């Protein structure tokens, strides 16, 4: 008696390769435990056939611990579907086959390039990149890859972001402020990336002021809260202050309310309850939000 092998997963790309090999496919199976091989000369029979074919191609391997098999045929069309099943044999005869699974041969990388690429600096640390999807291409497109770098002479500064095929924009984050970046976009699949577009360059915005609002005063009359603070003046290397954002919430609740003002004053109406409130104030600028002030605790009598 021979135990039935279990096909665990299959793929058209070798697991230890960066790029797929044209005219090949790879599948993996769970080896039969040694105590269940029940005989000498144990091995596996791999049977496969292309979609639409009736007869099976059989390949025997004598490696009892094998869990992977690579089939190569240069005449295979990229991403061709196959049915595959695995059986066992030993000196006493042939055992049962596993269930039939579907796999695909290795594919080729996309040959087309995305069009209409443009980018803009969103904040001091982020660049928004947009492009048009590849609509007509003989190869499968799994997604898009955005590659970015600071300087062609410094390859260690290069980074990349990948998104799925149905996404045509992404924001590259964690960048340095007031810095020029080069970006390019390509399509990819399991075979690798296609041709890259000519690089475009974008300079991130200046960072927000590093100084938080200081010298904050407040008065509370009934439910009317008035706040005053010293205006923040940006340094030359920082983005100009365009306003302020106030975040306030009840001390015993997590819901945060946001209020913005163009001036260094704000008037708020607090709900009619006896809860205490905590307020933070931050600068607004093209570079993003600045650091928050020390917490302001409003005690309701």
Automatic annotation (TrEMBL):
InterPro entries: FN3_dom, FN3_sf, Ig-like_fold
UniProt-listed SMART domains: FN3
Location of this chain's protein in the cell: Cell membrane
Principal location class: membrane
Domain Fibronectin type-III: 13-108, 113-207, 212-301
SUPFAM superfamilies: Fibronectin type III
Pfam families: fn3 (PF00041)
Assigned keywords, A-Z: Cell adhesion, Cell membrane, Disulfide bond, Glycoprotein, Lipoprotein, Membrane, Signal
UniProt protein name: Fibronectin type-III domain-containing protein
Species whose genome carries this gene: Xenoophorus captivus
Organism lineage: Eukaryota, Metazoa, Chordata, Craniata, Vertebrata
């Amino acid at each position: 008696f021979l135990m039935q092998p279990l096909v665990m997963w299959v793929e058209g790309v070798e697991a230890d390769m960066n790029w797929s090999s044209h005219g090949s496919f790879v599948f993996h199976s769970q080896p039969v435990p040694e105590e269940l091989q029940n005989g000498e000369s144990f091995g596996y029979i791999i049977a496969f056939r292309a979609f639409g074919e009736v007869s099976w191609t059989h390949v025997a391997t004598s490696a009892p611990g094998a869990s992977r098999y690579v089939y190569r045929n240069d005449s295979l069309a990229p991403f061709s579907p196959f049915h595959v099943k695995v059986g066992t044999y030993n000196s006493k005869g042939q055992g049962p086959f596993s269930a039939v699974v579907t796999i695909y041969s290795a594919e080729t990388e996309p040959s087309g390039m995305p069009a209409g690429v443009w980018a803009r600096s969103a904040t001091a640390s982020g660049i928004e990149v947009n492009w048009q999807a590849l609509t007509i291409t003989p190869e499968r497109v799994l997604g898009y890859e955005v590659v970015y770098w600071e300087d062609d002479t410094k390859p260690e500064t290069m980074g990349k972001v990948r998104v799925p095929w149905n996404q045509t924009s992404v924001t590259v984050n964690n960048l340095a402020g007031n810095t020029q970046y080069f970006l390019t976009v390509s399509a990819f699949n399991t075979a690798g990336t296609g041709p890259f577009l000519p690089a475009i360059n974008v300079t991130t915005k200046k960072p927000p002021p590093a100084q938080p609002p200081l010298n904050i005063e407040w008065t509370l009359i009934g439910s009317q809260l008035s706040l005053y603070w010293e205006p923040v003046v940006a340094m030359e290397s920082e983005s100009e202050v365009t306003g302020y954002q106030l975040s306030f919430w009840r001390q015993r609740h997590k819901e945060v309310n946001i209020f913005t003002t163009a001036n260094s004053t704000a008037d708020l109406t607090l709900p009619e309850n006896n809860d205490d409130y905590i307020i933070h104030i931050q600068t607004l600028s093209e570079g993003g939000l600045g650091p928050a002030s020390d917490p302001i605790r409003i005690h309701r009598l």
